[in-house]
Design a protein that fits this description.
By secondary structure, this protein is an alpha+beta fold. 31% of the residues lie in helices and 34% in strands. The longest helix is centred in the C-terminal third of the chain and has 12 residues. The relative contact order is 0.34. The model has no long low-confidence stretch (mean pLDDT 89).
């Protein structure tokens, strides 16, 4: 797909990260309220986070750093 728009090379670097879910602050939770267009309340988001993360403190995940080059 990337070659169809003119890219000839790609560099990918996986980055292992950790997401601290022990104490989710209001600033972070308000992002989900914003992204939902106001359909979700802060209480709904907080309840869903507790259900998903439970008693976890840190969640590991991977991100990708990608660089593309055109000729």
């Amino acid at each position: 797909m990337m070659t169809s728009v003119g890219f000839c090379e790609v560099y990918e670097l996986p980055i292992k990260c950790q997401f601290d879910v022990e104490e989710l602050d209001d600033d972070f939770m308000s992002l989900f309220v914003f992204w939902s267009g106001g359909r979700l309340s802060m209480e709904t988001v907080r309840k869903a986070a507790k259900e998903v993360y439970g008693g976890e403190k840190v969640i590991p995940y991977s991100m990708w750093f990608m660089v593309f080059r055109k000729p």
